[in-house]
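Worked problem 6 (solution included).
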Amino acid sequence: MDYPAIIQTSDKMLHLTYSWSDKQKVKHVILNPYVLLSEPTCVPSSCADFDGNGVVDARDVGDFAEGWLSNALGNLTDLDCDRKTDFHDFSFLAAQWLEVCP
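Solution. The predicted structure is:
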């Protein structure tokens, strides 16, 4: 299983790196912690396990990154039902990190 690494720099930004595809691909994402919400505005009944392996893990973060800032109707990474994938959705995914989904 691949695990992400998160560090906070002196400017307070969060830097997330993760790998997928048997560690052949690496992604770096910079997050502003001041725009993250502690609770999403709407909680759907499904889990943030986008790849269906039963746990919210690094592969799901990869899938989430692919849908980042998308406003396509039916986008699975839009976890708070506002028709865009953004920091609100990330807070929902982060709250489920490494949880087992039914």
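Discussion: The longest helix spans residues 58-66.
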